Amino acid sequence: MTNWNVILSIAKTHLLTKIKQTSIAALGVTFGIGSYITLVCFMTGLNTMLDDLMLNQTPHIHVYNEIEPSKKQPVSLYDKFTESFNVVRSIKPKLSQKKIHNALPIIKYLETNKDVRGALPQVKTQIFYVAGSIEIGGNLTGVNPIDEAKLFNMGDYIVEGSAEALQTTDNGILLGIGVANKMSLKVGDRVQISPINGGVFPLKIVGFYQSGVADLDAIQSFTAIKTVQRILGEAKNYITDINVKLYDIEYAIPLAKKIEKQFNLKAVDIKSANAQFDTGTTIRNLITYAVSITLLIVAGFGIYNILNMLIYEKMNDIAILKATGFSGKDVQLIFMSQAIIIGFVGGVLGLIVGFGLTSFISTIPFETEALPTVETYPINMDPKFFVIGFSFAMVSTCLAGYLPAKKAKKIDPVKIIRGQ
User: Fold this and answer.
1) End position of a domain, from candidates 229, 248, 272
2) What is the Cα–Cα distance from 299 to 311, expressed in whole angstroms?
3) Is 86 contained in some domain?
4) In this predicted model, what pLDDT tens digit does every residue of 75-84 receive, in sequence order?
5) Of 62, 43, 1, which Cα lies nearest the Cα of 241?
6) Residue 87 DSSP SS3
């Protein structure tokens, strides 16, 4: 029967008598795990920030009426030419309205779907910002500000003012920061806008919007849906777009296809709309995890080398242990115990170092005009990274200790003693 008290006591003695090698082995684990945690938390934090910058503003499914040419031309409807090869040049788009027919019932129907977190109406129109004799082209989007802030994090991109102010202010506008800079406007001023069908409407500026995309901020502004409907002279059921947010983004593609087929509307899923960006995110994540795993493997080899050297230095001790009645299995357990102790101590210290470094990085100022709401470097302090790091420390030290321990188990004490 294995006497664990004796085995652990001998393992402890070996580690303490060679405290320098033990410390180096433990520090190898510590810095390997600490570096892994710091790198993966920092890189995934940056990746998440970049993803959010793009994807927070993009609905999982965008539903609208697309202007497109008629699939069937008049010549194809004429029975005489059904068997003929017809060529039609200069096809013009068919006359269609931007308004989504029965938009409000469609929204209610979508919200009954268990996969849908929310479906929000929008009214989009092209306008001119009027400043004296100057007219600047732009886009005006009518939204439900509170719902947009809740589902699409609109508040993260409001650098002055709030979504609540836009909701409660009659004829209020959330002006793109680029437009505001061009026209030297500030919160509380009034800006005149003119829709493409004519007329001039003064709106009160309740805040500024900055998405981080300069070209978008130079033309885009937001107001309440009822305000845009009033400017366009349309009824309360006039809706041009529906933005759908899902609980799981993976359901976007099948649900978009279903919406297109069911309602004869154009439905673009987020994966199709951002295919290139999604590919970039995947590559960045692969690089992050590849570098992180490399760090862990290097730490594992360092542990193996140190334990291997430790066994060579302890040849006499191994011979004495076997000569006094310890079995090969007992010797193996002694050195495996040493590896586990080194892995545990190094792993715990690695977690502390990783947590400390990531906490420090999260306090470093990160200032950029493109991301005004981001004040410090982003960190993704996901607990699973700490669990993975500690688990790898234990597994790698066990594997690194197994081969040297197996070698110690097979050592013939007679040969060692004769050699002395």
Assistant:
1) 272
2) 19
3) no
4) 666 666 666 7
5) 62
6) coil
Q: What per-residue confidence (pLDDT) applies to 42?
A: 87
What pLDDT shows up at residue 242?
94
Tokens of 163: 């979504």
Please answer whether residues 203 and 156 qualify as being in contact, where contact means their C-beta atoms are separated by less than 8 angstroms: no
Residue 61 and residue 252: Cα distance in Å, rounded? 6
| Predicted confidence (pLDDT) per residue in 111-134, tens digit | 999 999 999 999 999 999 987 777
Interatomic CA distance for residues 123 and 102, integer angstroms? 14
DSSP 260-274: HHHH--EEEEHHHHT
The distance from CA 404 to its chain's CA centroid, rounded to whole angstroms, is 42
Amino acid at 152: F
The rounded Cα 95 to chain-centroid distance in angstroms is 41
Predicted TM-score (pTM) of the model is 0.65
Question: Same domain, yes or no, for 287 and 368?
Answer: yes
pLDDT digits (tens, 9 = 90+) for 337-387: 877 888 888 889 989 999 999 999 888 887 766 566 677 888 888 888 899
Contact yes or no for 307/339 (Cβ under 8 A): yes
**Residue 10, both tokens:** 């001998």
236, 255, 272 - which closes a domain: 272
Q: Which domain holds residue 332?
A: 4-55+278-419
